[in-house]
Amino acid sequence: MLHRNYIGGEWVEGVATNLNINPSNLDDVVGEYASADASQTEAAIAAAHAAFPTWAASSPEVRSDIIDQIGTERLARKNELGRLLSLEEGKTLPEGIGEVVRAGRVFKFFAGEALRLTGDRLASVRSGVDVEIVREPEGVVGLITPWNFPIAIPAWKIAPALAYGNCVVFKPADLVPGSAWALSEIISRAGVPSGVFNLVMGSGSQVGNAIVKSPLVRALSFTGSVPVGRRLAGDLVARGAKIQLEMGGKNPLVVLDDADLKIAVECAVNGAFFSTGQRCTASSRLIVQEGIHDRFVEALKERVAGLKVDNALKPGTDIGPVVSRSQLEQDISYVEIGRKEGAKVVIGGEAIDRETPGHYMTPALLTETTNDMRVNREEIFGPVATVIRVRDYEEAVAVANDTEFGLSSGICTTSLKYAGDFKKRSSAGMVMVNLPTAGVDYHTPFGGRKGSSYGPREQGAYAREFYTAVKIAYTLG
């Protein structure tokens, strides 16, 4: 079966076909998916533009019911859709199912938000004048999503876009079209009018570029690499369009001498290695005070040694494969870069074979690193964590903040004093205390500072800042 693009309410063949390969078993083709070109993308944008006036004027209750229905079906099919996600991305099956559940909850949340959009009424400084402040949809919104969360990230972009009355042109990552197509198929049956939602699969050079360049696209939400995000920002700002960027992190987890060792190790393992380390919120820098350093490293090494790397669908697998051959090569190359810089590889960092051919790698732990090494400056995006030894709390905070990124940070300590101070002084957008740096609630805002994020926050009620425009009306009474 060829899975087609969804444009203007119709399933449309593309100009080429993309094979979706299972990273746990390279002999397994998950499915065939159509790839669109620029002209088909422009047709999708035109369809969204034409549908916008009617959708924007629709009742919030209509939008709420549709979005709630999408969430309900996702939750009902969590096992099936979670398996599909794990097949194409490489997350373990429990992680895949969990992500589908989160996506379903996101739609449920925004079904409520469609009914809760509020405004303000102020007293004017001029006698007899009323001031109303309302929020209106932006128009056609382009959504470009990455491969590492192929259903959760599209959900937290699509759901608020539709809830607030926008029309959508959605481009998923080439590596993971299956989850995107499955979500789009559900949306196509939920009562969304033709043109309101469009799925356009294909390359960034064709589909992505057409979305970015179109004057009909009034806002773009992008999650991906720093270089691409910065280029898109220049293009969108130049033509006066709105842009929201999530671009990555080099997240610190500080472990102080007074930390509960067991909690600290579990936070590090979860944050650094689960989801194969392919999370922008991953704990890639473990900043450890010298009094607990040796015990922490030994305990973490033992814990990592017990992790099972295997097929994502196998029961008991802790870490699935890396998503692609190129990503695997990049991860392993960074381990070698760290070794050449003087780091000690205490465990892992090697490609391994399993029963089925796949992109398998042992999780790597590097010690004796300094914060100026490339492995501590550049985002690796794989199961690779480094340890940086520090003297005291003050040095830990300084090292944690010494990065161009600012997405997530964490601290493990039993001290309320240090926990409270770190929450204030961390330069990250999200701070965790005795919790992994990866893992956030679906109803709270998501985003960082510095080179990690640009524009309004995603998720939760804060999503309205991006997906709506503020209008102020003055009336002489």
From TrEMBL:
It comes from Microvirga aerophila. The active site is at residue 246. Belongs to the aldehyde dehydrogenase family. CDD domains: ALDH_KGSADH-YcbD. The keyword Oxidoreductase applies. The keyword ATP-binding does not apply. GO terms for molecular function: oxidoreductase activity, acting on the aldehyde or oxo group of donors, NAD or NADP as acceptor. PANTHER family: ALDEHYDE DEHYDROGENASE-RELATED (PTHR11699). This is Dehydrogenase. Residues 17-471 form the Aldehyde dehydrogenase domain. InterPro entries: Ald_DH/histidinol_DH, Ald_DH_C, Ald_DH_CS_CYS, Ald_DH_CS_GLU, Ald_DH_N, Aldehyde_DH_dom. It holds the Pfam family Aldedh.
